[in-house]
Design a protein that fits this description.
single chain, mainly beta, 2 domains, 14-stranded antiparallel β-sheet
């Protein structure tokens, strides 16, 4: 009888542990399918971000987002395919158009060997190819705020090393600020790069939407955020 009770208790404990591990595994998958964010570019222009969720890329399940920037006669539309677990890029496709004509650029990432192959085309003709090797995993500048938003342990002083070709820099959570963007006022986590090239403000509330992204000579300011059913 005692043995049966021990077996039953052991089985219950095992089930709890298995369920907890399954839940943790599900939490490891980034999923903001249907998310749409509209940004204004300061001093001028606009950007639209869309998350299409999990898609198939050559037999691999990847996350797909698009990022479309428009400034006067210039337009840059990016399709970014990434690992749903760590948001490291697999492939980027860019269609660029402007007064200088049209360009198509691909970025093919090998995260095991820390390399990226950047190929440029004009009028369907390849005009250049560049192979870049780094000392570790390679991030994407657009995916970087999405990586930050899913960190569970955000405290002032938290930091990590980011590699965005051709740069490597430290990104640190330096403060919690109240900021104002076209969408309203928010409490935000403020991240800053060292050296000073890049800043990100994430909404402190779930789902930690990137509210403001600042680079050299420009800022993206959130105007609207929503989720759409695909």
């Amino acid at each position: 009888m005692k043995i049966n009770k021990i077996l039953i208790v052991s089985a219950i404990v095992l089930m709890i542990l298995v369920n907890n591990n399954l839940l943790k595994g599900e939490a490891d998958i980034y999923d903001c399918t249907g998310e749409n964010i509209l940004y204004l570019i300061s001093p001028f222009g606009k950007v639209e971000y869309n998350d299409f969720g999990i898609v198939d890329l050559k037999g691999i399940k990847v996350n797909l987002i698009t990022f479309r920037a428009k400034v006067f006669f210039f337009e840059d539309t990016e399709k970014i395919y990434s690992d749903p677990k760590n948001l490291l890029p697999y492939k980027v496709e860019r269609n660029i158009s402007g007064l200088g004509g049209k360009e198509y650029i691909t970025e093919e990432y090998d995260q095991k060997n820390f390399t990226v192959v950047i190929t440029k085309f004009k009028t369907s003709k390849q005009v250049s190819e560049q192979i870049i090797k780094t000392n570790g995993p390679i991030q994407n500048v657009i995916l970087l705020p999405l990586y930050l938003r899913r960190r569970p342990d955000l405290e002032i002083g938290w930091h990590f090393t980011a590699r965005i070709v051709p740069d490597e820099f430290k990104l640190e959570l330096v403060s919690i600020d109240e900021i104002k963007v076209p969408a309203g006022k928010f409490q935000a986590y403020h991240f800053k790069s060292i050296p000073d090239k890049f800043e990100v403000w994430l909404n402190k509330d779930t789902p930690r939407v990137p509210l403001k992204i600042k680079g050299k000579g420009f800022s993206l300011l959130m105007k609207k955020h929503s989720f759409h059913n695909n």
